[in-house]
TrEMBL record, chain A:
Protein name in the entry: STAS domain-containing protein
Domain STAS: 35-126
Region (Disordered): 1-25
Domain of life from the UniProt record: Bacteria
Basic and acidic residues biased stretches: 1-11
Transmembrane segments: none
Originating organism: Glycomyces harbinensis
PROSITE patterns recorded: STAS
From TrEMBL, chain B:
Top-level taxonomic group: Bacteria
Protein name per the record: Anti-sigma regulatory factor (Ser/Thr protein kinase)
Domain MEDS stretches: 14-158
Annotated ranges, domain Histidine kinase/HSP90-like ATPase: 202-309
Listed PANTHER family: ANTI-SIGMA-F FACTOR RSBW, ANTI-SIGMA-F FACTOR RSBW-RELATED
Gene3D superfamilies: Histidine kinase-like ATPase, C-terminal domain
GO molecular function: protein serine/threonine kinase activity
Organism: Glycomyces harbinensis
Entry keywords, A to Z: Kinase, Serine/threonine-protein kinase, Transferase
Amino acid sequence: MAAIDEGRRPSGAEAPPGLRDGPLRVSQTAGALPVLRASGAVDLNGHDDWGRALRTAPLHDGELHLDLTDLAFIDMRGITVLVDVAQRLPEGARIVVHRPPPCFGRMMEVLWPGGVEAITVKGDAP
Amino acid sequence: MTAASGGAAADPFDHPALYYSGGQEYLDGTVPFIEGGLSAGEPVAVSVPGANLRLLREALGDSAERVLMLDMTEEGANPGRIIPGVLRAFADRHPDRRVRIIGEPIWPGRSEAEYPACAQHEALINLAFAGRDAAILCPYDVDGLDERALADSLATHPALVDRDGRRPSGEYDPERIVGEYNRPLEDRPRTALRRAVDRFTIDNARWFVTSYGRRAGLTATQLIDLEIAVTELLTNSIWHGGSTGMLQIWTEKDQLVCDISDAGHITDPLAGRRPVDEDRAYGRGLLLVNHVVDLLRTYTGKHGTTMRIHMRLPANG
């Protein structure tokens, strides 16, 4: 494998507009099935907001539905917060994670290889 | 040859090196250790390079089904992954039982880049398993390994086994090995791209490294792993290493290499090698990195810390 071709190096210091993950945005939808939607990235700039949103989101029939379709990235602490919130839910309640980014599955597989009882991952939108 | 049947009196943890020359000595040293464990009802795992795994499978016959058999060149390619991902992962599944493990993390094909992390790993097993009811037997190929590897094994194992029997090591000193191999890493090539990253630019750094990795030919799965590893290392730099990490990335031969330097000092030698439930956030990030990269190398001290990750480029990438 040759070194990266000089002319094809990422030249600028910044990602082109639209390619950055962007800041974390979390919103709670209303309707028959309340859903917590997150977009952008959960990293060290968004841990507090992420944790607060998860801890205060209402359960619907014992479930908290998270739509991560537009989430570009979540880091280890972001997943740890999610697992922590899930494990503190009342008996039988769970968090249903819809369409998480690929890094989510990879980190769960490494850090919680046996899965987390109170977290269910679904590939479809809520 | 008598393998690790008896441990030290005070500490139930037993960690002998087994010196072998050829397949027959390998089997003479390992099979009684495995069968002794099985007949005592102890869970047994074997993690050794593929050729030795095949040798053992054949020799064990039906008994092999009662042994967890892993290829160390896959499970333990990154030495930093072996304690959390192989040894403790197995031992912790049997918390109330004595376990036996054969672990062969150093084989003749190990590279110069990998070796220091291998030696440190062997030394750190003693710390990670102190007081645990376990036996870990580490085979060393005396024909294929160089003098350095054999000399270091005397310092990383409290007991030695060979065709003449078992004896204590007079040179046991694992802390010395951890310190000796905490060395400056090789210079980066002039082609390395370099940029400082802080909390305001961490998302841009993710884009930067994945763009670089994509151009270098990493697979989609490797790009995810690279993004995870770089984010966790930078996060540690920002929280614990003076708020900025200096990221540098390049390719060499068949590898993509990326390192992150900061002003922090890692004083916990087991950071990143404990199971997820036992480590704090710093170590948990390193644990994740250890799992997803092909090699993690560290140089740390009061002067600061450099963490260097290697990822193998696909053959036709």
